[in-house]
Fold each of these.
Amino acid sequence: MSEFEKRVREIEENASEAIKKAADLDRLNEIRISFLGKKGILTSVLKSMKDVPPEDRPMVGKWVNDARAVIEGRMEETRRYLEAEKQNARLKAEEIDVTLPAKTKAYGHRHPNTSVLEEVERIFVGMGYEVIEGPEIEYDEYNFTKLNIPANHPAKDEQDTFYITDDILLRTQTSPVQARIMEQGRLPIRMIAPGRVFRSDEVDATHSPSFHQIEGLVIDKGITFADLKGTLDVFAKKLFGPDTKTKFRPHHFPFTEPSAEVDVSCFKCGGKGCRFCKGEGWIEILGCGMVHPHVLEMCGIDPEVYGGFAFGVGLERITLLKYEIDDMRLLYENDVRFLRQF
Ligand code: DAH
């Protein structure tokens, strides 16, 4: 065996030995550079080729190339092995212990107003009503004029209403949705319209500059006050319990004639009179009436053919009643410790 052949064999063995011992991919790369790199040990053999007689050079070249192939093969094998090992180590490190107790999540809670609104919607949808919404920023015309509320009406005063311009305002009631839906001319109508309303009121236990109402409107042929009474009686019984009685007291609203306010028998004392109903036995819950013929006309409906009833409920009012909360401000503070009770 020639000097050269021995040297190449030795290099091959040394490289194989080093590769076998390589503990990681970095080390393997170092080995590659030191044996096969431009200034590597094996390459240096080729560089000393000038000392080899020309006729032996192809032979030496072949040994070197064979050795390179063997070393590269070993390296590839080891590289695969080390990579698999690295991957396994990572999988092991990232292993999830599914038996650990789960982290608790803080869930929110339905606001009592939302729960009551959903209940009211369920009751009316169950009677075939549609739920629709109108704009919170409204024209004076819809909020007042088309509802038969004259220019000198106290509700129009700046003390009560937030005006944006002379004829645009934050709606003071959900009743303008009545005019909007009637104008569309698709009859009959059976709808409720819940939403936010605004009045220039100081905050106290029963007032807020922003609160919610639920408007109701039915327009069809042959609707009578008996339909209104029957509907609202069913509503009160479903919301406050089957023993609830209703009482209709004459009242005035510009857009209904006749108009009434509805009281329910106190569901705390059953009507005998207690602190909850302030000794009255009755609690007021809403306003209602038969839609005024002039309102129908202004909205393009012939009052000789069609008629109907309307009602407006204060959402906060019935929420406070239903959950026996005595201060409206609690509904707006959104303290979860408070909300969680309902
Ligand atoms: N919009 C009235 C208010 O805010 C409530 C109301 C009363 C609505 C009678 C009606 C109704 O639809 O018929 O005080």
Note: The chain has two domains: 3-93, 112-339.
Amino acid sequence: MEEIKQTTNYLYSRKNMKPIQVGDLIFDSSKPIIIAGPCTISSRDNLLELAVELKEIGIDILRGGAYKPRTSPYSFQGLGDTGLNYLIEAKKVTGLPIISEIMSVDQIEKYVENVDVIQVGSRNMYNYELLKALGKTRKPILLKRGFSSTYEEWLLSAEYIIKNGNDNIILCERGIRTFETETRNTLDLQAVPVIKSKSYLPIIVDPSHASGQAYIVEPMCLAAIASGADGIMIEVEKNISNAVCDKEQTINLETLKRIISKIK
Ligand code: PEP
Ligand code: MN
């Protein structure tokens, strides 16, 4: 217990307010960062076409899953390395920074070389070996909250990365498991003020995985920004029928445009 307290204090009491940056983008709530893109990269053409439109709409970072942590081993697992290469190509074409989810320590080299932000998914928040290894890099890490994690556990996972040398961390609230079954998860917006009271780390909100349903995404994006979040991450497709995963929660470009203009 004593040891946990000490580690916790290290993060909580930290006074260093160094801004977390991805290229020229600064994660602070004065200008919320918009991360958008497909849940899963499905094809080169789809991704490139979507990426060009997203750039025009004015998003800040392009997302796209290449390796997907699916609940069922029988579900599509993502295009893997091929998908990641398409995302890298989309970055070259649009100039947008990119973010993608990492699964294991042996992928770190490729991710460090090619992506701007490495995403650690909800299911890997407790993968301490991965967190320690990411701590040895200097890449910005997006650390999603485990769907059954307390704030304390989440911050301690961040601390695994920090303790190993990398303090470029952005936290992401993505909904937690509750007794409610109508929505995929329950968006815990209290996370934003609570995390800000305990830590200097920026926090963004992912209403797509929290809600699981497209009609909830827009109001929750606005609520997230109102709560003081430093950004949002949204699953979007040009043509929703192209979504190979998480179709029900995917919004279209028109909705994304409206969200961005309302935020501004
Ligand atoms: C994702 O953002 O692609 C994802 C799988 O989310 P989570 O880890 O929050 O389930
Ligand atoms: Mn998804």
Note: The longest helix spans residues 44-57.
Amino acid sequence: MDIRELVENILTKAESALQGVHDSQELENLRVRFMGKSGDFTALLRAMGSVSPEERPRVGQMINTARAAIQSRFIETARQLSLIEREHALALETLDVTEPRHTRTLGGVHPITRVLNEITECFTGMGFEVVEGPEAELDLYNFELLNLPRNHPARDAQDTFYIDDNIVLRTHTSPVQARTMLQRKPPIRIICPGRVYRADEADASHSPVFHQMEGLVVDEDVSMADLRGTLDAFARALYGDGVVTRFRPSFFPFTEPSAEVDLTCVTCRGKGCRVCKGTGWIEVLGCGMVNPKVLSLCGIDPSVYSGFAFGIGLDRLCMQRFGIHDVRQLFEGDMRLLSQFR
Ligand code: PHE
């Protein structure tokens, strides 16, 4: 076979191979096969050795022309392939802008948590520290150390759920105060927020689970005036000037003397409205001077130290604040209610 035939042969082979190429990898393989170091063309150029010197320029030119032709066919094919590949990639990445998007719904802080955070801020601003404790609590801390011995009639007001004879679901967060007094030396200045339980039938104003924020201060020379000043400052911080406290005598086994405290009704600013049932006052907490007996039960010498304590019911404050009329709604997790308070 003479060289011209060889060249034409290669050209035909290359052309038909190029027609069948599907992607750039295949094209690259072909390029190596025809133009590479041990490719068909290189072999052809090597065969030049057997061509007579007179023929050489003509044959050389023929090979070069063919080579150039093939090279430009490769370049063209590469261009076509890259267009096709690009289109393919674009098709794969197509974004359907009409498709419904995944929405990520942002939650909100539960109204109880909001009120709890605000009140916490009031008291931490006055130098109180937040202390927490268990909800399943020993009878010892929940009752006994707080001067509520077994079978004492005052326990009736705080009937709860018994896990066994010695463990109850705490009826208030006061056990956290007992625990703290046993662990630390005065001065003590703490607030104890948390969930508490009582064996109450659920209705619009009662729930077997609710929330409290109790406070305790123990130091030398703590008086009822300090208690009153602290609660007044709390009322103003929460509701602004013009809201004052009213103390009414009351009874708690763990405080002596004890008081119920009302705040000026913020809905009517004391004029009397539906929320305060015409009285101008809203009952929000119980408080008193820590009973000396409780101090000694908790390892603090009542001849040196005195203290005051208070317990704020968060649920009622929260309901009043957000205009919620049924306490059960605070615990149902119904989005129709909760989403109003984002
Ligand atoms: N622990 C009381 C209750 O839950 C509230 C309270 C706390 C009263 C501190 C006085 C002093 O009813």
Note: Residues 169 and 184 are 24 Å apart (CA to CA).
